[in-house]
Automatic annotation (TrEMBL):
Tree of life domain: Bacteria
SMART domains: HTH_LUXR, REC
Domain Response regulatory intervals: 1-116
Ranges where the HTH luxR-type domain occurs: 131-196
UniProt keywords, alphabetically: DNA-binding, Phosphoprotein
Stated name of the protein: Response regulator transcription factor
InterPro entries for the chain: CheY-like_superfamily, Sig_transdc_resp-reg_C-effctor, Sig_transdc_resp-reg_receiver, Tscrpt_reg_LuxR_C, WalR-like
Presence of keyword Coiled coil: no
Pfam families given in the database record: GerE, Response_reg
Cross-referenced CDD domains: LuxR_C_like (cd06170)
Chain positions with 4-aspartylphosphate modification: 51
Length: 198
């Protein structure tokens, strides 16, 4: 398996934990989302365990790329971000598993085995929360605009990066605030993050 985790202590603990398992072999470790696809192509693992929040490329985007370009490699998202929106995004990315980092260590090795066997593994509490959570009202473009705003980009920067006019970006930002029932852009960012939509 390939392990993608940017926090060195956490990655070291996971490696130590999984090294105990005689039937699980870690063939490579990476600390950036951008390194996942090249590493998966180089090693062709059966399973990739991916942190959701990685530098370079987030874990869900990387998991979707792995599924699209090397579907034989099944993916398990490991995260401390247990919002229902993240689970929905993970399912859209065709991940095979979604496990919270505060789960007991035995659950991780069990999840890897089950995913390798072709099963899907999802934290049951989170699945229930996702079932009853509200749907993301934002379009893909609105989400993209909000994600760039969350990175600190101003309207002019967002317009340049997305090849839009500044007025169009401002219209998107206004629509986002209205759709989310937010007081302002900062509140919209808070709501979207809490729901796991970003």
């Amino acid at each position: 398996m390939v392990l993608a985790e940017d926090m060195h202590m956490v990655r070291g603990a996971l490696v130590a934990l999984l090294d105990i398992e005689s039937d699980i072999e870690i063939v490579a470790e990476v600390d950036s989302g951008s390194d996942i696809l090249p590493t998966v192509f180089a090693h062709r693992p059966d399973v990739a365990v991916i942190d959701i929040d990685l530098p370079g490329m987030d874990g869900l985007t990387a998991a979707a790329e792995v599924h699209g370009k090397l579907p034989s490699c099944r993916t398990l998202i490991l995260t401390s971000l247990g919002q229902p929106g993240n689970l929905r995004r993970a399912l859209e990315a065709h991940v095979s598993g979604f496990l919270l980092k505060d789960a007991p260590p035995s659950k991780l090795s069990d999840a890897i085995r089950r995913i390798h066997a072709g099963e899907r593994v999802i934290d049951p509490e989170l699945a229930l929360d996702a079932w009853s959570a509200r749907e993301n009202p934002l379009t893909a473009r609105e989400t993209e605009v909000l994600r760039l705003a969350a990175e600190g980009a101003e309207a002019a920067d967002i317009a340049g990066r997305l090849f839009l006019s500044v007025g169009t970006v401002r219209n998107y930002l206004t629509a986002i605030v209205i759709k989310l029932g937010a007081r302002n852009r900062v509140d919209a960012l808070r709501i979207a993050r809490e729901q796991g939509w970003l």
